[in-house]
Amino acid sequence: MNLQDYLQSSQQRHLDELLEFLSIPSVSALSTHNADTRKAAEFVATKLKDLSFQVTLNETPKHPIVTAHYHVDDALPTVLIYGHYDVQPPDPMNLWTSPPFEPVVKDGVIVARGSSDDKGQVYAHIKGAEALIKTTGTLPVNLKFLIEGEEEISSPNLLPFLGSHEDDLKTDVVIISDGAMMAPNTPTITYGLKGIAYIEVRVKTAAMDLHSGAFGGGVPNPINALAKMIAALHDSKGRITVPGFYDAVLDVSPMEKAALEKVPFDEKKFAQEIGVTATPGEAGYSLLERLWARPTLDCNGIGGGFQGEGSKTVIANTAMAKISCRLVPNQDPDDIRDKLTAYLKELAPAGVQVEVIDLHGGKPAMSPIESGSVQTAAKALQQVYGKEAIFARTGGSIPIVSNLQDLLKAEVVLVGFGLETDRVHSPNEKFDLENYYKGIETSSALLNAFASRSSQ
Ligand code: BES
Ligand code: MN
Ligand code: MN
To answer: Of residues 151, 411, 422, 429, which has the active-site annotation?
Structure first.
C-alpha cells in the first residue's frame, strides 16, 4: 500500500488511539496523578514496542522518561524526536465545556487537556513512523524517541538523564513538535524559543495580622508594599527596571528585523482572538518583536490578606507573588534570578522582610534558519503543504532544548503542528483533526527528507 492510502485508511484508528492517550490525566505538577503519568509513559512505551522499537522506561525521582530506538543501518543518519507526555493541570474546571480527560471530537476538533500540548503532536510522530514502517517494512533513518513527563514542570530530571545517556541519545538532528503554526495550513518552523527565570517572592511584616483601624497609619502593610515593589519593576515606557536586566540581551539584527516585518501577523486579529483591547509593552518595539525577541517580566500570581466574602478590616502580615521573566539570547536564567532577587530586596520599604524562592529556570534557544537541518525540514514541509514554510520565533519555552543542543551537539528543528488558538494551558484546549492528520504525514515526510540529506 502506498503511504497516502495507508494514512487515509488508518485515520479512524489513529484518532481512536490518540483519544485513549488523551484520556490519561498525566498532570506532572500534581503528585496525586503520579500513577497517571506512569500510565501515559507506559502507553507511549507500548505503542513504540508494538512498532519494534527497543524501548526503555527510565525511572527518575519523579516521572519516567521513555526512550526508544529503531536502528536500521549505521550508514544512515539518526533522527531523535523529543516531546512530552505530561500536561498542565486542567483547572479552572468549571470553564471546560466537556471534562478535560474525556476527549470530545466535534466539528473536526478534539477537545481535551494535552490534545495540542503535547500528546497530540507526540502521537502524530509515533504514527508517522508507523506509517513508514507499515508501508515500506522499515524506516529511512535510524530513529530515536525521547518522550519525557516533566516538561511542564521545567524538566528537572531530564537534564541529569541527558548527561548520563549521551551515547544512547547520540543523533544527527533533533525534531520537536511542541508548538504552533502561525496560522491554519501555514507550515511553520520555529527558530527561537525564550528562556525563563521563575521566582516566588514572600514579604513579611508584623508578628500577626492587625486591626486596620487600631494599627493603620502606623505599621507597614505587606500587600501595599509588595504591590508597589511589583509596580516598580517596569518604568513608564514598559522597560524592566531590574539593574543589569538587559545587559546580555542580543538585539535583533537588521536582517531579522526586516524579516519580522514580512511575517503575516495581524495585530488586530491577535487582540480580538484573545479578547484584549490594547497590546501594551516595551516602547520602541513592534508587537511581534516584543512577543518573540524581547525579554519580559510578568507577575503570574499574587496573594495576601482577606479574600473571603464581604469585608474584614485587617492588615495582613504576609503577602506573596509569583514572578516569571521570559529570556532571550544571551540572557542567563541564574544571572537574571540573582539580579531580580537583589532588586526586590532593595525595593522593600522599611519594616518589610523579603524572601525570594527560586522556582525554576531554563535557557533560551535558537535554531538558525540557515542551518542544514532547518533547511531540510523546510523542504519536507513544502512538499506536504505545497507552499513554502515560514520562520517564526515564540515567547514560549522548552527548557531542555538548549541542553539538547549543547550535550548532543545536534541541530534542533522545531515544527509545530498546533495552532496559536489551541488554548494550550487553558480550559478547552483543542487540536484540529486536520492538524493531527497533517502532522502524521509531515512526520513521515521529515524522516524521508532527513534520510536523503547528502552529508552528515
Ligand atoms: N509547548 C510549550 C512551549 C511553547 C508554547 C512552545 C508556545 C511554543 C509556543 C511547553 O509545553 C510549555 O508550556 N513550556 C513551559 C515551560 C515552563 C514550564 C518552564 C512554558 O513555556 O511556560
Ligand atoms: Mn509543550
Ligand atoms: Mn506546555
So the answer is: 151
